[in-house]
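Hello everyone,

My group is preparing for a crystallization screen and wants a predicted model to guide construct design. The compound we'll soak is guanosine-5'-diphosphate. Before spending weeks at the bench, it would help to have a computed complex in hand. I've included the protein sequence and the ligand's SMILES below. Output in structure-token form would be ideal because that's what our pipeline reads.
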Amino acid sequence: MSGNPLPIPPEILHRREWHTETMWRDHYESQKILDFYFNSQRDPKPLYEAKLLIIGEGEAGKTSLAKKLKDEAYELELKEKSTEGIDVLPWEVPHLDGTPMRVNIWDFGGQEIYHATHQFFLTKRSLYLLVAEDRKEHTDFYYWLKVAETFGENSPLLIIKNEKRGDPFNIDERALRGEFANLKDSFSTNLSTNRGLDTLRSEIQKYLSSLDHVRENVPSHWADIRAVLENYSQSRNILELRDYFDLCRQNGFSDEKEMLAASQFLHDLGICLHFQKVRFLKKILILKPEWATGTLYKVLDNPDVKADFGRFNDDTLEQLWDEDDESQMRDELLQLMKEFALCYEIPGCKGRYIAPQLLEKERLDYPWDDSENLILSYHYTFKPKAIFPQLIVALHEQIEQNCRVWKHGMVITNGSARAEIIEDDLYRNAEIKIRVSGSNKRQLLTIVGHELDKINRSYDRLTTEVLIPCNCSQCKGSQNPHTYTWANLNRRQANGIATVQCDISYEDVNVRRLIDDIAEPQPRDDLDKMEKVDPRQSGATASPFSPTINIYNRNDNQPMTTNITQNHHGSGDNVAGDKTVNNYQAPQTPEAAQQIIQELLKQLKIDEQTTAAKLQTQVTFKDLEWQQTLWAAFKNAGPELAKSAVGIALASAGLPGAIAAAAFNVVVEGVRGGLENRGALPPGDDENPFGEPSF
Ligand SMILES: Nc1nc2c(ncn2[C@@H]2O[C@H](COP(=O)(O)OP(=O)(O)O)[C@@H](O)[C@H]2O)c(=O)[nH]1
Ligand SMILES: [Mg+2]
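Reply:
Good plan to model first. Here are the tokens for the complex, ready for your pipeline.
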């Protein structure tokens, strides 16, 4: 259903969720889709609601513009209070079809501190206005357009040139348009004289009307509950989940699952916040997102906290969160800050916290043994400013002496291994460099790599490359070695090319050695819990810590890369293949394939009572991705390794010896049958590639 042009919002059709300990996950829940569809057919009601986001540097005139759009008679204030976090202003404007449309204007604080929450509030399917003023030269159009593109996806963007001085100013719009398809147009205005304001308003109205979801139908009881929540938000900031359920029941809902689907929908539209997957937060709906962000920024914007470079404690929170709702919700608000990676609690110091973006900028001094280091770096075409603070929060438990951390770097430890992680202060063609010393280096590198991969993947549109330094006689130990991308080394290995020439020394370097130096052989238990990564969402990221599986299309033999990821806490994930074509996933080495077979078979429910027939049924009815991956792994492992992998997996699951012996053919036939039923058997595989089954 998700590929069909149904009048169903993507929030319902295809939902991404933040899993606290893992990552974003995709959901296709057929019952929910069907319920929504039939409900909206029975009783449809278009919501006529749109979100308008105003972004740009501080002082550009964003708040003034928001107020002027609502009311052109609004008098500019000489000293407009600078926006803390986000303000949300409702604006009624007619749709081009004449129906009144409700527009929520999201006015963002421009200071860098506010960038940390962009990921959560810069939404898709919205209209973006990028406001720039003529008095300051510093509007970085590239940065803001990149931000809007990264978070807003295909949402249209208009540049508003606020000519405060009255002089026209020019930007190289042609160049920007060449790079950013989301940039639709630009307009000049002067907010103190209202020059250009009428045109601007009608253009905005036009773009808002053409957002395709604005007239989407939602079941009428969903629209009702939305209105009820809106009403409640006039008088309160928070609603307990059970009260929300009651309100839903009074408005025609009966099923709690549907109530949660509705609150997720409203969350995605930015109407309220409901973090259903976070233990502390799932029990409340935050009716005013701007209230929540405002309270968080009360802490981050506090002069004392800033002067202390981001350090604060429970007393600070008690003082700053002194209003009724704030003091009652202190635990939840703190949890929200942690959830947004805005702060972490210092290990061993209960009640003391650090907000990493406020840390000292200067690099710390510490001893470092630079012999025999493992080194690699992540290269970002565009690096959102929140990435490094997020990494600090993710790794904070391992920070050396709890204090070797600054705004752009940290040293973490694991046993006697130490890792130094430093980012450059760039956002374009930026780098995060990692070097590891001590023993068990690869293990620590893997930990860092996992966390960083996880963060990178939580951004839909990031492209990153892992760079590995050359180890030829000239580069080894050099501060400026030649580097290879991980993807390149992998392609070489997959195509049987054993060496690569160093650009500096022209020596031929062994590819396998370069790879083995960095990538840890996968620990078995880590692959236990498999998680799916949508290859479209994993971007161009190929990382040694999200071991790569190449998906070969049989016809052109072009590898498409996707990731198998694992994380060091003991969950890993497996690959989602491309469902529409006959691809199969080919793990790089027979050993990796063997490993995958064992891990996939662990997902079966096997005990002493399992018969050959039960086993075959299970395999035949497993999901397509599982089958495709297993099939590819079988072929890459080759008959001997594949057989032994099946034997090991089933025997260790407790399957009686007699069945385990025959199990290989049972599994092969089962998965082949499953693929065949779904029309997903790779061409040429109609014959059992391992010979006739002999049960
Ligand atoms: N003279 C003049 N002042 C403006 C104009 N637009 C905004 N301002 C002033 O510039 C300051 C910053 O504007 P504000 O809307 O708060 O910027 P924001 O930080 O982007 O929200 C305020 O004091 C405004 O009154 C304009 O077009 N002309
Ligand atoms: Mg403002």
